[in-house]
């Protein structure tokens, strides 16, 4: 007779343990989702930046993707990339407000672009 009483008790404890374990993760996910991450991509194609001018919010990660067979590089007043080859990328985070021109370090005379950073 005591065995019949013991079984439901065990099931109840098991369910409580499960719901307790499931309760924690959703709140953790919500705090991660609260901070948006801005990303923009500029492609390098036929020795040109496309688009040559972009406007982004402060904190945006801009990624240049080289679609040419030739290596290119991004050179700005604030930073300078290594040369990167076909299908490779280089990323820079624009934290400060302003207008930031850049050129290709390999072909500076005719490969120019700029990033405008707004609040
Ligand atoms: Cu170039």
Automatic annotation (TrEMBL):
Give UniProt keywords alphabetically: Signal
Q: Which InterPro entries match?
A: Amicyanin (IPR035668), Cupredoxin (IPR008972), EfeO_Cupredoxin (IPR028096), ET_Amicyanin (IPR052721)
Pfam families tied to this protein: Cupredoxin_1
Signal peptide, first to last residue: 1-23
Where the record annotates domain EfeO-type cupredoxin-like, the positions are 34-117
Keyword field contains Signal:
yes
Q: In which domain of life is the source organism classified?
A: Bacteria
| Keyword Acyltransferase appears in the UniProt entry | no
According to UniProt, the name of this protein is: Blue (Type 1) copper domain protein
């Amino acid at each position: 007779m005591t065995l019949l009483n013991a079984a439901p008790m065990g099931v109840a404890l098991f369910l409580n343990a499960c719901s307790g374990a499931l309760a924690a993760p959703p709140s953790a996910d919500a705090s991660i989702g609260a901070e948006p991450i801005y990303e923009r991509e500029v492609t390098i194609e036929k020795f040109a930046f496309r688009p040559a001018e972009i406007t982004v919010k402060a904190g945006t990660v801009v990624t240049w993707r080289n679609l040419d067979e030739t290596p290119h590089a991004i050179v700005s007043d604030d930073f300078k990339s290594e040369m990167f080859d076909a299908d490779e990328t280089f990323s820079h985070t624009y934290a400060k407000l302003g207008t930031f021109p850049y050129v290709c370090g390999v072909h500076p005379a005719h490969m120019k672009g700029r990033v405008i950073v707004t609040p």
